[in-house]
TrEMBL record:
The lineage of its organism: Eukaryota, Metamonada, Preaxostyla, Oxymonadida, Streblomastigidae. It comes from the Eukaryota. This is Reverse transcriptase domain-containing protein. Residues 19-202 form the Reverse transcriptase domain.
C-alpha cells in the first residue's frame, strides 16, 4: 500500500504541474469520483477514476468505434504493417469549465477536479477517437498510406515494405507534432506481415486470422462458467449475459457459426431487461449447452479463418430433368469436361 500511495502522489504532482488536474473548493464540486491505482503488466502504475456514479447520469448516444470488420476491409492480401503505441492524448482534450465540477476527486482531504479529459467516463474513448480522426485522415492523404487507429495505438499499413519502412519516421514526427507521446518500448517499427489487433493474430501473407492464446483461454474460462451455471440452474444478471454476448460477438470474425446462438441469447436478455431492467436475474436455457461445447472445441482447435474470399479456380454446373441429367466442369470460362447420362428406372421414380 505504501508503494501505491507513493506512486499516486507522484502522478498527482505531475498532473498538477501539467495543469491536467486543478485544486478545487468543496462548494464547487457537483460529483465525486473515487480514484484507484492499477499495476500494469510492465510494473508501472496507472491512476484511474471510478466514474460509475457519473456514467449513470451521462446520456448515451450511438457512436461507431473501429472494429475488426474495418480492419478486415483495410488489411488486404499481401500488406505490410507496423504498430505504434501511443501515450494518451487525453491531457490535451480540455473539459468545458461548467463540466469540470463533475470530475472531482479527493486525496488526503484535498479536493481536485480534472481540467483535461480523464479516461473513465463512458464518452472518453469517443472524444479521443473524434479528436484523432481528422489527424489520421490528413496523414493518410499526405503520405498515401492506410492507418487503422485505436485510442492507444495505430497501425500503418502499406503493400510496399520498403516504402512503409522509410515513411514510419515521418509518421512518428507527425504524431509528436500533434502532442502524442510515442511509447518506443511497445512500438513495432520494422514492417511485418503478422500483426496483433484486438486479441487476434492477423497473418497478412494469406489473409488469415486466429485468436491469441491468452484471449482464447479467458474466453474458454467464461464459457466453462456459463455452462456450469446453466447445468446447475444458477441465476445470472442481464449485465453478465450482455458481457458474454459481446465477447462471443467478437469471435464471429473467426467462428461464423456463432450468430444463431448469439441471437437467441440476445433475445432472452432483451426480453428480461425490458420487463425488469438490467439488474434482473435470469436462468439461461439448457439448449445453449451444445453450442457452448461446440465453441469450446473450436477455441481449442483455433483453426485460422480466411478473411478474403478467394475466387474458385473451377466451377461445376449441374442440371437434372425427369428423363436425364448432365454436368459441365469449367475453369475460368474454359470448358474442361462435359458429362451426360440417363436415369435408371429406380432413379427415375425418385425424381
Amino acid at each position: 500500500m505504501e508503494e501505491e500511495a507513493e506512486e499516486y502522489m507522484i502522478m498527482l504532482e505531475e498532473e498538477l504541474k501539467d495543469n491536467i488536474v486543478i485544486p478545487s473548493r468543496k462548494e464547487q464540486i457537483k460529483c465525486y469520483n473515487p480514484t484507484f491505482m492499477i499495476k500494469k503488466a510492465d510494473g508501472k502504475w496507472r491512476k484511474i477514476p471510478d466514474a460509475k456514479t457519473l456514467n449513470k447520469e451521462i446520456a448515451d448516444f450511438h457512436f461507431k468505434m473501429h472494429d475488426s470488420n474495418e480492419v478486415k476491409q483495410t488489411n488486404i492480401l499481401g500488406d505490410w504493417s507496423t504498430s505504434l503505441d501511443l501515450s494518451s492524448i487525453f491531457p490535451y482534450l480540455i473539459v468545458q469549465t461548467e463540466s469540470q465540477p463533475y470530475l472531482a476527486f479527493v486525496f488526503q482531504n484535498n479536493n481536485f477536479t480534472y481540467r483535461a479529459m480523464p479516461f473513465g467516463t463512458k464518452h472518453s474513448p469517443i472524444y479521443l477517437t473524434t479528436a484523432m480522426e481528422p489527424i489520421m485522415l490528413q496523414m493518410q492523404m499526405k503520405i498515401e498510406i492506410k492507418i487503422v487507429n485505436y485510442p492507444d495505438y495505430i497501425i500503418p499499413v502499406h503493400q510496399n515494405k520498403e516504402y512503409l519502412k522509410n515513411i514510419i519516421q515521418k509518421i512518428i514526427e507527425a504524431l509528436i507534432y500533434f502532442w502524442f507521446t510515442i511509447n518506443t518500448e511497445k512500438c513495432e517499427t520494422e514492417p511485418k506481415q503478422t500483426v496483433i489487433i484486438l486479441g487476434y493474430e492477423w497473418i497478412l501473407t494469406n489473409a488469415m486470422v486466429n485468436t491469441k492464446p491468452k484471449k482464447r483461454l479467458l474466453l474458454q474460462h467464461d464459457l466453462y462458467n456459463v455452462r456450469r451455471w446453466i447445468k446447475t440452474g444458477t441465476e445470472i444478471t442481464v449485465k453478465q449475459t450482455d458481457k458474454l454476448i459481446m465477447k462471443l460477438y467478437f469471435q464471429r470474425l473467426q467462428f461464423q457459426e456463432a450468430s444463431l446462438f448469439l441471437n437467441t441469447m440476445d433475445h432472452q436478455k432483451v426480453q428480461a431487461a425490458r420487463l425488469k431492467g438490467l439488474n434482473t436475474m435470469i436462468i439461461m436455457n439448457k439448449t445453449a449447452i451444445p453450442y457452448i461445447n461446440q465453441q469450446v472445441t473450436k477455441l481449442r482447435a483455433n483453426t485460422p479463418a480466411q478473411l478474403i474470399q478467394i475466387p474458385p479456380q473451377m466451377t461445376i454446373t449441374t442440371d437434372t430433368a425427369p428423363s436425364d441429367q448432365g454436368s459441365i466442369l469449367e475453369r475460368e470460362l474454359e470448358m474442361i469436361a462435359m458429362a451426360h447420362g440417363t436415369w435408371n428406372k429406380r432413379q427415375a421414380r425418385l425424381i
